[in-house]
Amino acid sequence: MKKQLMLFCCCMLLLAGRTMAQQSKSQWVTIKSANLRCWECKERLERQLVIVNKAEMESGIIQWKIQLLQGEIKLQYWPDRTSPDAIRVAMNNAGFDADSSLAVPDAYLALPPICKRPADGGGQKKGAPPCHVQPIY
User: pTM value?
Assistant: First the structure.
């Protein structure tokens, strides 16, 4: 009986250690976007990421930081729950370019003019206040 109990305990310890070893470390990815340059774009993308992260990515995105002046987003994620490609797809579905993949056309057309690509006449207009600064309401 003692041998069986000892064997059971050893197996449980091995399984627990193996489970802990299989947990992946979080990773970071930086994604460039030509039409992520203003505060309104930032808010739109963040709302979409919160929804998609909970619904489709098993809360795989831990956090993100958006750099509007550089037109990029840096994301920390769990690689066993989501991937950089899945994050790019979520950005594309929200209307934003993600590295070399372009936004879904219907979602892109739904963006306000300021959030469009500079090549399409989007972005900050001359004489307008800077759009990368949070507006004061």
Answer: 0.76
